[in-house]
Amino acid sequence: MTRLLLPTLLALSVSTALAQAGPNRPAVDPWALCPAEDSIPAFVEAPATGWPDRATSPTRVLADLLDYSAEDTTVLEGNVEMQRGDQWLGTDRLSLEHASERYRAEGSVRFQDATMRFTARELRGDNLVDRVEVDALRYQLISERGNGEADSAVSQAGASTLLGATYSTCDPAQRAWYLHARQVDIDHDEGLARVRGARLNLGGMTVGYLPYLVVPVDDRRRSGVLYPTFGRSSRSGFELAVPYYLNLAPHYDATLTPRLLSERGVMLTGEMRYLGARSNGQLDIDYLPSDRKADRDRHQLRYAHLTRFNRTWSGDVRIHRVSDTRFLEDFGQGLGDFGISQIRSSAHLLGQGRYWRGSLSVSDWQLTDPLLTDSVLEFSQLPRLAWRWDRPWAHWLQTGLRAEAVEFDHPVRDGGRRLDLKPWLRTPIEGSWWFLRPELAWRHTQWELERSGGDRSPSRTLPIASVDSGLFFDRPVSLGSRAFTQTLEPRLYYLRVPYRDQRDIPVFDTRELTFGYAQLFRDNAYTGADRQSDANQATFAITSRLLSESDGREWLSGSLGQITYFDPPRVGPGSTDLPERSRSAYVAELELRPGARWSLAFSEQWDPELRQTQLRAWRTQYRLRDDGVINLAYRYRPDVVEQADVSMAYPLSPSWRMYGRWNYSFLDRSTFDAFAGLEWQSCCMAVRVLGRHYLRNREGEKDNALYLEIELKGMGSFGRETERLLQDGILDYVR
After folding, report:
1. Long-range contacts at 552-559 (CB < 8 A, ≥ 24 apart)
2. HSE (side-chain half, CA atoms, 13 Å) at 526
3. Average of pLDDT values for 463-471?
C-alpha cells in the first residue's frame, strides 16, 4: 500500500508534457481575473500544507469496513483514505491481491498532494511490474492552475502513456483555449514527452495542428523549437521567426532562428551563450544572404565577453559590426536604432585596488549613418592607458592623481598621441551644518601630432584651484495637517583656471558638456583632455527641500543657480574662442512628489544677456491603480529641438487595457514615433494588438508595423513580441 501512492503522480506529467512555462515570470499576478475556486476544489479530507517529508512519513489507512475473509484478497470499503506526508488518496473501494500484488481503486477516486489534485473513475496497479492504470482522469495543478482530462493513462517502469489528453489554464466552464493530444508518451528517465496528434483550440476553433511534437516534462535544458513570432512592416513585409534552442552543454548553449522576411529573403539569426568559472559571454549574428531590396548580403555581429582573472584584474571585450550603414535602419526597432550614427568595438583590461583604478583598452568605431562621411568618425584609441589614484590621509586631507596616455588613429584625419597628468590636493573641512572644500590641482598635457604643419609637439600646463562651500538650515513647517521639515541650502563655488591658447591643438575625443545644474560646479566645461576651459568665476546656487516628517520622503525640491564670470571664458571647443559674456544662464530645477502616484519635474535655463530661454524641459507622471501609468513630457532648445511625448498604459476595465505613445516634433511638424493598441485579458489568455507609425531613416521616411501577440497563460505566447516596444516607449510600464 505504501507504493500505491507513488505511481499516481503520473497525472502531473500530463500537464508538463502539454505546457511549457515561459522563462520570465510575470511582474503581476497572472491569475488575478480567475475565479476563486479551481476546476477541482481542494478535498476537505486531504491534508493541509506543512506535512512532513514523504520519504520519512508512514502510510496511514482509514476505512469504514475492512474485509480480509478471502484467502488472498483484502478489501477496504466506505470512505477509504490513504495518506503519506502531503499525499492523500480517497476512494469508495480499494482491493488488494497479496500474491500478485495487484490493487484496484473504484468509485470516486481522488488524489491530492502539494502540486496537484485529480479525480478518476478507476485506478488499477501491479506492484510486481510497477504498472498503474487510470481511467477517466481529471486533474488540476495547484501552483500553475493548469487543468485537463485524459481518457486513460498508463505508467510502467519509468514510462507513461496518455490517450485523449487535454491541457488548459482556463476554467472548464469557459475554455478560451486548450491543447488536445491523441497520444502522449512520456519517458520519465529521459525527461521527454512525445506528443502525437496535438492541436491547439482557440475560442472553439482549431488554429494549429502538429502531428508529432517532442517537449520536456522537467526542468532539464533540452534542444527544441521555441514559440514563433510573426508580424508585418512596410519595409520588410510579412515576418515569421521560428527559434530553435540547442542545449550543447551545461555551460554553453545556442539559439538558431530562421526569420522569413517576405520582401527581402530569409535571415538566419544565431545566439550563443557560454558561462565559465571566471568568464561569460554571448555572440549574436544576423545574416541575410542576397537581400532582394538592397541587392547584397547583409549581416550584423555582436560579441560580449567578461573574464575575472582574480580579485584585482578583469577583462571585458565588446564587438559590434554591421555590413553596411543601413543595417540598423532596416532591421532595428526605429528611433532607438537609427538614431545611432556610430557603433563602437572595444577591449579592456581593468584593475582595481584599495586606492587605485586602472585600465588598458583599445577601441574602434564604425559609421552607421549613410548621410555622414568618414570625416566625422570618432578617433580609434590604439591603445589607451588610464590610471586613477585617490588616497585619504586624514578626514581633512586627500590627494590623488588622474593620468592618461592614449594613441589616436583615424582613416582620413591626422592622428597622434597624448599624455595627460592631473595630480590634486583637497582639504575638506566640514561640520553638521556647513562645509568648506578647497582643492588645488596641476594639469599637464603633452601631444605628439601626425601633421605636416604647425607645432607637432604642443603642450599645456596650468594650475586649477577651486573652493566649494555650503550651509544647511532647516525649520519645521506645516501644510494643512501634514508636518514637514524645510531646508535651505546655499552653496558658493569659486573656480580659477588661467587661460592657455589651445586653438592650434586638434580635438580627438573632447566634447563640450551639456550645460545644466551639475555643470555649475565642474572645473572643466569639456570632456577629454584636448580642451581645458579657463575660469575666473563664482557660482552661487540655492536649494530648498520639503521633507515629510512622517516617513522622510522628499515631497518637494527646488534649485536655482548661476555663474558669474569675473573674466569672460575664452577657450572654445574648436579652433575659435568663445564669445564674450559676463554671466551664464540661470539654471532652475524643480521636482514635486506629493504622493506615491504623481510626480512632476521641471528644468529651465534662461539667458539674461540674450533674454531668451536656452532650455526648457518638463515631465509629469501619474500612476493609476491596476498597473496603469500616464506620462507627459516636453523638451525645447532654440532651433535644435522642440518635442512633446505622451505615453500611457490605461486600464479600461479589469479585462481591457489601452496602450499608446505619441512623440511629436514641432520643428519638423512631424510625428517621430507613435503607437496605439489594446489588450484583452481573461483568466487564462491575453491578446495584444498594436499598430505603430515611426520614422525609419534619416531621410524622413516613415514606416508602419503591426504587432499581434497571443499569450496563453501558463504556457507561453506567440506572435510578434510587444513587451520590448512597450517598455521602451512607456516609462515605468509594467506588464
Report:
1. 553/593, 554/591, 554/593, 555/484, 555/592, 555/593, 555/594, 556/590, 556/591, 556/592, 556/593, 556/594, 557/589, 557/590, 557/591, 558/588, 558/589, 558/590, 558/591, 559/517, 559/587, 559/588, 559/589, 559/590
2. 19
3. 97
Q: Are 548 and 482 in contact (CB under 8 A)?
A: yes
Cβ(612)–Cβ(696) under 8 Å?
Answer: no
For the stretch 86-142, pLDDT in tens is: 778 889 998 988 888 888 889 889 888 777 788 899 988 887 887 888 899 888 877
Give the span between the Cα atoms of 52 and 115, in whole angstroms: 15
Q: Which amino acid is at 170?
A: C
- Rounded to two decimals, the pTM is 0.79
pLDDT digits (tens, 9 = 90+) for 8-25: 333 334 444 444 333 343
User: Which grid coordinates belong to 369?
Assistant: 549613418
pLDDT confidence bin for 453, thresholds 50/70/90: confident
Q: Is 442 exposed, middle or buried (0-12, 13-18, 19+ CB in 10 A)?
A: middle
Adjacent-strand bridge partners of 241: 229, 259
Residue 643 near residue 634 (C-beta atoms within 8 A):
yes
Which residue reads 515631497 in cell numbers? 555
The one-letter code for the residue type at 683 is: C
Partnered with residue 673 across adjacent β-strands are 663, 694
Cβ–Cβ < 8 Å for 487, 474: yes
> Is the bond preceding residue 383 a cis peptide, omega within 30 degrees?
yes
Q: What is the DSSP-derived secondary structure letter of residue 294? A: T
